[in-house]
Design brief:
single chain, 115 residues, alpha+beta, five-stranded mixed sheet, elongated
Length: 115
Amino acid sequence: MITATFDYTEKVYSFSVVGHAEYAEQGKDIVCASVSSLSTMIANEVLNRCDNAICRVEDGLLSCQVDLNKFEHADSYHISSLFEMLEMNLKEIEKQYPDNVKVLNDTDSAMWYDQ
């Protein structure tokens, strides 16, 4: 199973995607391909926009963390939106494949700029 965990603490946003979907054999696993594609796209975009982003990639693991305190409001809004867009899309995959994907949120998902 793939477990995606999102953590929004103060202005530090992070996500990790761990595991394998085991929906089908390697190379034919559409669930794994979908999750990998989405999470890699967001991680790459965060890395392109943030000098302070920390991303880690290993077999069965992708994690990314960024400190939004170092950005202007408009930039931090865009970056936080990327994280939340990933979370929302992974939750849609979870609805379709609940035996293969689990999305967890360590904190209240309310966006910090709405508070």
